[in-house]
Each structure stands twice: as structure tokens, then as C-alpha cells.
Amino acid sequence: MRTIKKGFRALIFVSITLFLISCGHDLNDVIVVGGPTSKVTTELNVNSFTKYQLIRGFGGINHPVWRPDMNNNAREKVFGTNAGQLGFSILRVHVDPDVNRWNAELPTAQYAISKGAIIFASPWDATPALLDPNNTAKDRILPENYGAYVNHLNEFNNYMENNGAPLYAISVQNEPDIGEWTQWTPDEMLKFMKENAQDIENKVIAPESFQFRKNYSDPILNDPVAVDNIDIVGGHIYGGGLSNYPLALQKDKEVWMTEYLMNLDATSSWSQLEEKVIWDESMEMLSTVHQAMMNNWNAYLWWYIQRYYSFIGDGEQGTVKDEILKRGYAFSHFSRFVRPGYMRVSIELKNSKGLVATAYTGANKTVIVIINPNATEVKGIGAMVVNEVPETANLYLTSLSKNVEETVLKKLDENLLFEMPAKSVATLVIQN
């Protein structure tokens, strides 16, 4: 639930200059990246008293029926939180209609649980016996089989729990509105949520529209019965839907972006693309994560975790199997540093020069994720938290030539100063 304390607007802004100090160097051996700047020209002002949404986490899907399962080397890189790891805190898995394939989900799911991640599941195709045999154009579950469908979901839920990979939540249907898998009309989804969803033995995610289409979710949220049977409003942002959802907030429901991908439509020629072209699209991806956070959404998940256009190389299209890709390093500025249970808080940018930023607090830390989408560098960036000047901070930077490069910042001469290269993302971590 969004809570805002009004009236805290006049913050005493103390200009502080911090030179970029390379890790392992002291104040007598200062390394200034890109040359010194003399003053703060762009101010990042965190107001931790103004709070927005709880962060549930960041992640993606492992689909061992459609793609090879990850091995332990890749799993460690995905779910670990140390340097050179991605820090994923949510894993999405697939509810296969064939119970004999459920065991394929266990190895990675069990590993994710061991690292403290949460898991949710989405079904693509319902068990064929539940479908309308007379509907040859589109697969639909017969309404009289909705109870049996609940049993199917509960069986998967129990299977995962009994095998050391309990689900945090389960979805009713992946993309009921796209036409490639089991289909639901808005009326059918509402009927199920009113009459059957209460029997699902876990938190319920719905409707997972491929464009966050509100004609699917609004009726559920506006119905006095159905609204009590939905816990998380889930959806995707393929070609639309990336916007605030006041009705979901009003009904005290979490909002999760549960799937998205970008691959420049170059599925057969990815290896021929210039690194800069791929990086430019990765910057667009980061913009969608930033917007999702600004929309008060609680979670953001990508499609395949391990794929040549994703976060871990799969050995195809010129990628090295199990190697973290630059797109993964970029995403880790959110997934590794903005942890489950953190709160997004207010941040004001003065003379932003095109920068965008979000701020978070948790575990006695303030975390600021800053994106520079410009084709030019931005110097003279200053940051503060309320009116307290941190003695030290850690800056992590990814650009076309850097991968989460860490720099230790130390207060110097009561000024704060750092800079960002063109087309880059940075995370500033301050101990409170």
C-alpha cells in the first residue's frame, strides 16, 4: 500500500563533493574517472520519509521442457548476490499439463529456494481432458471443469512443496488473451475468479494478460467476491500495458510484471549484431524496469533467464554457455542491489540532464539506481539522503565498456561528485 508523508518538502541540501576513489586506493592516490569536475550540477535528493511500494523482487523463467535446464554453475551466477552474480530473487516456473514432466522443474527450483528466492508458477496449456471438445478454433476449459482445473493447479502446488520447492503463488493462466495456448475471455476469467479461485491452495496471480489489458483485470478488482480471491495482479508488457494501476493499489493488491523479452527480432542473426546495437536495446530494457518501479509495481520478471538475448549465455548465436551476458549485468543493477522487502522511496532530480533514477531503502541501506540514456556523459552528479552526508558509498557502473565496475566513494571537502558515461547505468549503495 502506498503511504506518503506530506509536508516533508524542504530538505536542507548540503552540497558534498566525492571524488571517485578506486578500490584499494587512499586519499593520497586519487583516481578521477574522466577528469575532475568542480561542482555539483545535477542533484539527486533522496527523501526516505516518502515511501511507495514494497519490492518483492526481480527474476525470470526457467523452462526445462522447452529449453535445457540450467546447471549448478549457471544457477549460482543467477541466484547468488556476490560480485559477478545476478542476485535473482524470483523464479518463474511452468505448470506442464503432463504430470510426468513436473520433475523437470525441481533441480533449479530447489536451488533457488536454497538461495532464498521465491517461486511462482504459470500454466500455458490445460490438461486436454478439461477442454471443450467442440471448440476446435481455440482451446477453452469447459466451465463445468473449472473445479477439476483447480485440482490440477493444487496438485502441482503440492508436488512442488513436497519436493522442497514450495510455491509462493500460482497463476490461473499465462496470457489468456493471446491465442497460442488455453484461452479465457474476460467473462470466463471473472467467473472462475468468483466461483473457483478461492479453492486454490496458495496466493493467486491473475490474469497475466500479454498487455496488462485492464478489461481482464478491472472486472475482477471491481467484483466484491472475485477481488478477495486475487492476491497479485500479474501481466506482461508486449506492446502496451506499462502504466500505473491505481485500481489495483486502491484494492491493496500487488502488481507484478511477470514476463517480457526484447531480442531486436534477430533470432537468426543475433551473432552478427554489433555490441553497441545490443547495448542500446539493453538500455531500453532498463527503461522498462525503471518505469515499472515508478508505476508502483512490486516485481519485474524477464522471459528466459538463460538465452543468447537474455542474461546467461546458452552457447547459441555466439554466446558462451553459462557466461553472464552484458544484458544480465545491466539487469543486476536492480536484481542484485534492490532486495526483497526494500521500499521504494522518493528521489528528486534537479537539473537532471536527462538522467532518471529510483531510490530504495532496506537492510540499513539506501540504494539509488541511475540510468543515463543520453549519447553523452553526465558529470557533476551529486547525491544525498535527507540531510545526512555519508562518509562512504559504493558506486557500481555498467556501460558499453564496463560490467558492474565498483568504485569506493569517500567524502571529501563536503562535496559529493561522480559522473556517468554515455548510455550507462549505475547503482549507488549507501550505508545508513
Summarize the structure in words.
GO terms for molecular function: glucosylceramidase activity. One of its GO terms (cellular component) is membrane. It comes from Lutibacter flavus. Belongs to the glycosyl hydrolase 30 family. The protein has 432 residues and is an alpha/beta fold. The protein folds into two domains: 17-52 and 342-431, Golgi alpha-mannosidase II (Immunoglobulin-like), CATH 2.60.40.1180; 56-335, Glycosidases (TIM Barrel, Alpha-Beta Barrel), CATH 3.20.20. Helices cover 20% and strands 29% of the residues. It contains eight helices and 18 strands. It has helices spanning 72-79, 106-114, 146-162, 186-195, 214-222, 246-250, 275-294, 326-335, and strands at residues 17-22, 42-54, 57-61, 90-95, 118-123, 169-171, 203-209, 232-236, 254-259, 299-304, 343-350, 356-362, 365-372, 378-385, 392-399, 402-412, 418-420, 424-431. A hairpin with a 2-residue loop joins strand 12 (356-362) and strand 13 (365-372). Helix 7 (275-294) runs parallel beside helix 8. It starts with 16 loop residues before the first strand and ends with a strand. The relative contact order is 0.18. Mean pLDDT is 90; it is low at 1-37.
Task: Throw out a few tags for this protein.
single chain, 432 residues, alpha/beta, Immunoglobulin-like, TIM Barrel, 2 domains, ten-stranded mixed beta sheet, eight-stranded parallel beta barrel, 8 helices, 20% helix, disordered N terminus, xylan degradation, glucosylceramidase activity, hydrolase, Glucuronoarabinoxylan endo-1,4-beta-xylanase
